[in-house]
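Re: export button greyed out
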Amino acid sequence: MSANILVTGGAGFIGSNFVLGERSRKNRIVNLDLLTYAGNLLNLSDLSGDPDHIFVQGDIGDRALVRKLLSDYQPEAVVNFAAESHVDRSIDSPESFIQTNIVGAFHLLEEALSFWKGLAADRRARFRFLHVSTDEVYGSLGPEDPAFTEKTPYAPNSPYSASKAASDHLVRAYYHTFGLPTMITNCSNNYGPRQFPEKLTPLTVLNAIEGHPLPVYGDGQNIRDWLFVDDHCEALRVVLAKGEAGKTYNIGGSCEKTNIEIVNTLCSLLDEMAPRSVCAPYSSLITFVKDRPGHDRRYAVDCSRIERELGWRPGETFESGMRKTIRWYLDNTHWVQSVKSGAYRDWIARQYGAAEENSAALAPQSIVGKLQSAT
Ligand code: NAD
Ligand code: DAU
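Workaround output, generated via the alternate export path:
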């Protein structure tokens, strides 16, 4: 039987991949997205003319709009992807993170609660509010620490992760206090098609093919746990279908890599898939730059609960997922050009222009390059 879902933030990276997957499964999607710099309707171009993908530009904090969408479309679930998602931007300018990730999530919860209370008992029992969150709420691990479990205490270190932690607490409270059937997922770093090129993977691929420096923060030894985006979306589907209200599920790739390993892997794959015309490998573009303030050293996710209780496992290997990802960016030049708006250029100039002053101290002499904008 097909489902009817209100997705928020469905024009962003993970949200759009989720929406495309849901439409291929014939589920009707109402997609509420503010279309910030990170939201892009081109991500959804495969759905143009699709009557069962209803796109609405708007804010999750606009209660009247959310109320109307819930009332008009009567969804069986809300899946909340909408957020400000980039750690560096939260350091540069945290205000919008507080507004969307905390205040916006609160308004969305309030409207979902009021809608849910008005449902008949059988629909109330089936309804789910799935909040898509991050492993960053757990803070940073030492080299020998065990991976984050659902019982790891929250210790967010950036304005981004603090805002996500605050929303997680609100979501949890709406279950415990009001009975709203919420679930939270805390996922590790995603990579894949349609990711805005401020994040490490697409930034590296796009800078590399344009011959620009590949900025690596600090010593490049920070560790993240990498998961292909379709595997995350599949996990969310499994949680929606079989997850228990009031529960949290960790999601991860069990694939810990240092940042320098990621960048080197992307460079080697690009050497094979899109060889440079100049006689130097892509890795010669690697440039160590000033570290991110408060940079978390290591994330690792223990996803044994979702594996054991719901039977989910990642389908993609790191190598196959990275290959698919690079292929997508190489093939979708129209998308690549479209995201490089003036606002994107300003961000790159501000972020990496400032880092340039400190790059020489950290970079081996041979690879200090002039950081430049991505155009
Ligand atoms: P993204 O930045 O690519 O997309 C966010 C989307 O939300 C954009 O389309 C944007 O327009 C929309 N949006 C922002 N503010 C809004 C508002 N007030 N109302 C409605 N829409 C709004 O982010 P992403 O990487 O796709 O992440 C999606 C969610 O998954 C986020 O909540 C993020 O915290 C979480 N997450 C991301 C990762 C990752 O590696 N990218 C990992 C774990 C969890
Ligand atoms: O762990 C899940 C989180 O993963 C999500 O909640 C966030 O929304 C998502 O953005 C991501 O956060 P990170 O900060 O880990 O992702 P980012 O791609 O910004 O950086 C990955 C690592 O690479 C991090 O250690 C910082 C480093 N980095 C990043 C950029 C942009 C660099 O070395 N150079 C760069 O230019």
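Residues 356-375 have pLDDT under 50 and may be disordered. The button fix ships in the next patch.
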